[in-house]
Fold each of these.
Amino acid sequence: MKSVIRAGVLALLCAGVAQAATVRLTYEGMSDWESGVAVTGTGSFQTKPSVNVGAIGLSDLISFDFTFSFSYKGKVDTFQYDLSSLSCPPPFMGSECGFSAVLSATGVDALELATDTVDARFNWDQRLIVFGLDDAITANPDMPPLSSGTMTATLVPDDGNTVPEPAGLALAGLALGAGMLASRRRAR
């Protein structure tokens, strides 16, 4: 019976634990069109559970959301982007959409992204472009940047509520079952 318990504990220790990486995003910039007007935005992205460190691309994400507001001459537009905003139709005037980042166990080492253009109600349509964490803009494809700033990308700490991967649980169950079967055969 002790060997069955040992096999079960070993199987559970070997069962992989999948944890998606969640990254909080904050944009801080200034309007290039109206002196002294701040442009700020917040959002996040989350990777698939099997991807939490290393170089990642658009196919590694399960969610992306980002919102910022742009004000010009007292009229404010709010722009909201989601995962579909990172994929665009064929390039317009050389603009392309996409996403890439490098995640480490302690943070975000690199981030580049470009969203599709979102319609404005009062001012100009805009997209969010991050060339690097220290170089981000909001822009309209027909104009110079509407704001320039920086993007902060913070890895959200694991809350400890990880869920084992189904394959890992299946492997643990198989090992435990095999151990129990072997124990029964020895007892006969």
Amino acid sequence: MNTVLSRIQEQVSRVDRTRSLMIGISAGLTALWSLYRVFWLFYATATFSSVGWSPVSLVFPLVLWGAIAIATGAVSAAFLLRYAKQP
């Protein structure tokens, strides 16, 4: 039975070990940057609500950066696990 995860694993295993390290690190940095953006969105939401503005306008960026953080975190994990395996 083919699952989505096995298909992704097949695609990741085709990548060279050194290149998978580069992809994993860059995706991890992107995930950290996205989490940083989510943190500052929560800060902006708290600040805007304290001065009377509605923080509803920040819902879309929060969902967007949250989704980017989750996706790049998964990509980073997949490629770094590929790098950690013996060649």
Amino acid sequence: MQWIISLYITMFPVILAGVFNMLFLKIPFLKSRCRPIDGGKNWTDGKRIFGDSKSVLGFILMTVLAGLLEVFWGFLLQGLGQNKRSLLYLYFENAPSFNFLIGMLFGFLYMLFELPNSFIKRRLSVSAAEQGDGRRGLKLFFFILDQIDSMFGIMLCLGILVHLTPAQILYAIFLGGLTHVLVNCLLILFRVRKYL
């Protein structure tokens, strides 16, 4: 149980960055400046590469937000004398420069590991809102993938940094997926999101 609490304490800045990223990108001024990563271009099959939902601004914002929130979280844990609660600080010094870089790395990996999922969905003509258009197998597959895709990169990186076992990494990805669902449910409740 202690390990799970430490995992959540370690990952809290990234979770928060994901929420803030979504909120900020709903601000009309920022939303109007979102340009898709794929530049609106199509793949060889004539379909979009990633789609409009993956934007350059979203990618940059998530990366920077995660870095800044990691620095803030580091200061907070330091002030409360709780450094040992974070898995990172069992192996690395709680320093602003490290926190900013590791936060940015986590934010970057969060966004990067969402791209293959988007690419596959465009190939199969699966919309983000409909998740498989009634095709039950695809609907379930992409629902699960949407919850854990960004976790793969982050947890692999964290696993290397803090020496997690493969079983711990898989369990962390599973917990990340459950957390993603719960956070999305809250965002739907507060009308920030329209669907899971």
